[in-house]
Amino acid sequence: MSFNDADVKSALKNLIDPNTKKDFVSGKSVKNIKISANDVSLDIVLGYPAKSVWDEIRVMVAAHLKVALPDAGTIKVTVSSKVVTHAVQRGVKLVDGVKNIIAVASGKGGVGKSTTAVNLALALAAEGARVGILDADIYGPSQPTMLGISGQPKSSDGKSVEPMVNYGIQSMSIGYMIEDNDVPMIWRGPMVTQALDQLLRQTRWDDLDYLVVDLPPGTGDIQLTLSQKVPVTGAVIVTTPQDIALLDARKGLKMFEKVDIKIIGIVENMSTHICSRCGHEEHIFGAGGGEKMCADFHTEFLGGLPLDIRIREQADSGRPTVVADPDGSIARVYKQIARRVAVKVAEMAQDHSAVFPKIVVQNT
């Protein structure tokens, strides 16, 4: 009994991608089906980075086809990921060398936003993506310390600078530009917003799938500049279960909605406290606040992280959790959050502006 491409696609319509919860055919992941005699080969191209589960998906697809097509001989499945550019706010110019920008924001300080941002960036890189991080907290830059990077960026042309690199991710921060980190940045709003624009556009980002932007807390000048001048694919809101933190997080979420920036989801930091001596877990800041906020705003709860002393110690030492303990339980949560963020981005509308030809009018 023979079979063809349509039979292979029909079989895969019944197989659900565990990350997107959609079948591989409607998710447009099935590519290059080839049938030679009774042997089958095909590619599964995921729209999100998922290096850690490529083998799992490959085995799952091959096993499913073996059952669905009993007459098939050798079944060869190749799994890879390809991240494309997605739509941003109207009228905002894209950044050279960057496909997607993910803003990480919080309504108030002290909720672990910067720690979440750097571990999100490192987790995306661990899943095979090309990732950068922009420290947009001009007054309190923390990414140089968290990434264990010292020194200043180099410039080959006097107009732009090369990003600093460590742990496989590219980074830029005002912290690299000042020699003494104890000196405060006493700048007015216009200077701060100009600095952000320069850090973003005068850095020679090298073919990034994602640029994670670590925003300062609140809803001030930086956030407004971000919405007007920075092409943001989506925003991740970081909060804690405390009522006051959730109240401020709601303000941040509403701000992004008003300026036409999509909300990817919410991360709840310090969901539980884990005792460093006995391991007892307790909801010292309350429970269920993040999930309730997601239900109220019809957005996704991306994950909850514990209040664990190791997260703080690892970030302070310049080796964030995802690189310090890559196989640990906390790193696993960061990677799950990163994969969910990437899947949500992949489901957004694509940007097709590069497809259209540029029309130039000249006098002849």
Number of helices: 11
Tell me the count of domains. Answer: 2
> So, CATH architecture of the largest domain?
3-Layer(aba) Sandwich
CATH homologous superfamily of the largest domain?
A: P-loop containing nucleotide triphosphate hydrolases
Q: What is the residue-mean pLDDT, rounded to a whole number? A: 86
Percent of residues in helices = 25-40%
Largest sheet: 8 strands, mixed
Order of strands in the sheet with most strands: 6-7-5-8-4-9-10-13
The gyration radius over C-alpha positions equals 22 Å
Tertiary shape: globular
CATH class of the largest domain, please? Alpha Beta
Number of strands: 13
Strand content: 15-25%
- Fill in the CATH topology of the largest domain: Rossmann fold
* Uncertain residue segments: none
Gap from first CA to last CA: 66 Å
N-to-C series of helices and strands? HEEHEEHEHEEHEHEHEEEHEHHH
The chain-level structural class is alpha/beta
How would you describe what is shown here?
- 32% of the residues lie in helices and 19% in strands.
- The chain has 364 residues and is an alpha/beta fold.
- It folds into two domains: 5-81, GMP Synthetase, Chain A, domain 3 (2-Layer Sandwich), CATH 3.30.300.130; 98-346, Rossmann fold.
- Helix 3 (113-126) crosses helix 11 and helix 5 packs across helix 6 (221-229).
- The relative contact order is 0.15.
